[in-house]
Amino acid sequence: MSKMKPSEKTLITGLIISVAFISWSTVGTSVGAGFIALAYLIGLFRGNLIKPHNPMLFWGLIGGVAWMLVGLLWTSNIIVGLAILKVMLPMLIFPLGLLSVRWDFNRWGPVAVKVFIIASFLAAFAGLVWGCWSSFMGGETHPRMWSPFISHIRMGLILAIGWGILLLNRKYTYSLLYGIIAFLSIWNTASVTGIVMLSITAFFCWINLVKSSVKNQTIILSSLIISFGLTAITYSIYPSPFTGELPTHTPWGNKYVHHPEKYLEENGNKVWNLLAIDEMSKEWNLRSKVPFDSLDGNGHQIQTTLIRYLTSLNLPKNGESVKTLSNSGVKNVENGRTTIKNHSGLMLRLEVLKFELGNFLDGGDPGGNSVTQRFEYLQTGIYILKSNGLKGLLFGVGTGDLPASFERAFVETSSRVDKVFRQEAHNQYISWWVRSGFVGLVLWLIVLYASWPKTSSIARLAWCIIVLSCFAEDTLETQAGVTLTMLVLTGLAYFNGNDTTNSQI
Fold first, then answer.
1. CA pair distance 426, 416, nearest whole angstrom
2. Which among 499, 427, 467 is positioned nearest to 161, based on CA atoms?
């Protein structure tokens, strides 16, 4: 690096730090961004900045940040607006640095990619070790403990990109090892977004690596496999309506209460049939020191937990079932366990998703259910757009008013989501539109259009992962998400060779 200009040295230092820490620490990425910003200032002071090689991308990003700054003029919460701008700083720093400072991408791009892959692999491996050790020691078993450094959602995106880079470079031995660790990490974090992105990576790479003579057949076969898989998953989690006869009285002669119109299931059995609450209450209080009208170890109603647990055993919810319940079963209910199934990772997530869907169809509170509550968030965002008039539609609610706007809209629409779980859109495009109006959304779409790689499969894959993730996540609402997005849109914008031939790592 001795022959490099100070601005390039500083830029490369910042880039390497950023890609090294993107999987580990927001503090590290902040330091990296600081070096990149310093590189721009050095280049500006020395007068050796270059014209951005992608001016539409450059000015689209700069314009987006400038528009959010202008949005402070009509926001009612300056503090929140400034906090948002702080999170969005990489949208300003990375184009100024990576697109305006002269640097040798052919030399340093592959180095940065190698660091990115090694760092993400080690972070995923460390998360697996930590999760296994915590489980072995009897500690917290929440899926997110398997990604202790950054959000499991962002980690899933990083691993999908890293695996795709290795596959497209035909590093099959490394990609096998990386893919196994990535899959285990995403499986244990139970990230639906992560597994979808990993699947997209597999599909994309398969299409790009096959011979051109069989590419069309491969696309058709892959589409059929994906369609079959999605159909099978949907069939497995979608609850069916009840059919059959139900007894009218318990073995003790009391009347059952049935709700055959409801969908909710546990272990394939309907939850809201065969209910004899009075019998259950009396027998439970004889079996347990935890009262029937109190909470279990997870903070949920004992009554509901007991109903779900007995349902998973395919037992009627009556006094006899509670009386004959094993001591371990009583303990399980006290601890908040709702099913006899002992799934973990993604299998557990599919079971939870099935419960979420049944609960949603029954008109229950979708709060705390990460998939079904997204429908409520999306509907709430659309309500805000419709109710704020032409001014709000064009210019948005203001840079700092997105959270408050959603809070008001939840109340105005009498949302089923409990206050504890009320969040923003979980759709970056809706978030952009609500916060910054149609003007802000158009600027963001210009950025996406301008950043589309014309030749490189690697850059196209990374671009697709970022763009698709924005439909189900607020990808740019966290520092890690913004930094990853800017690394992809501005860093990989230099991949302009023929497919992957200029991007060997």
1. 17
2. 467
Rounded (5°) CA angle 56-61-64: 120
How many residues comprise the chain? Answer: 505
Q: Helices marked H in 210-301 — which ranges?
A: 215-237, 277-287
Q: Reply yes or no on whether the pLDDT at 29 is more than 50.
A: yes
pLDDT of 188 reads 86
Burial of 166 (0-12, 13-18, 19+ CB in 10 A): buried
Instruction: Find where tokens 């259950």 sit.
Output: 280
Which one is predicted more confidently, 230 or 493? 230
Strand partners, 266: 269
Q: Give the list of residues 6+ apart from residue 86 with CB closer than 8 angstroms, or none.
A: none
d(CA 131, CA 163) in angstroms, rounded, equals 21
Instruction: Give CA–CA dist 11/36, Å, rounded.
Output: 5
488/416: higher pLDDT: 488
Dihedral sign for Cα atoms in the order 445, 456, 464, 462: negative
In single-letter form, the type of residue at position 270 comes to: K
Spatial separation of the C-alpha atoms in residues 250 and 252, rounded to whole Å: 5
DSSP 444-480: HHHHHHHH--SS-HHHHHHHHHHHHHTTTS-GGGSHH
Residue 61 three-state SS: helix
Residue matched to tokens 């721009």: 40
Report which secondary-structure segment, H or E, holds 270: strand 269-270
Share of the chain above pLDDT 70, in %: 90
Instruction: State residue 301 phi and psi, 5-degree precision.
Output: -65, 130
pLDDT, tens digit, for every residue of 362-374? 676 655 556 667 7
Q: Calculate the dihedral angle through the C-alpha atoms of 453, 459, 462, 464, rounding to the nearest 10 degrees.
A: 30
Residue pair 391/385 in contact (Cβ under 8 Å)? The answer is no
For 87-116, the pLDDT digits (tens) are: 999 999 999 999 999 988 888 888 999 999
CA-only gyration radius of the chain, Å: 26
User: In angstroms, rounded to a whole number, what is the distance separating the alpha carbons of residues 441 and 503?
Assistant: 32
- Burial zone of 295 (CB within 10 Å; 0-12 exposed, 13-18 middle, 19+ buried): middle
The CA distance from 35 to 42, in Å, is 10
Dihedral-angle region of residue 205 (phi above 0 means left; psi in -120 to 50 means alpha; beta otherwise): alpha
Angle, helices 345-361 vs 215-237, to 10°: value is 60
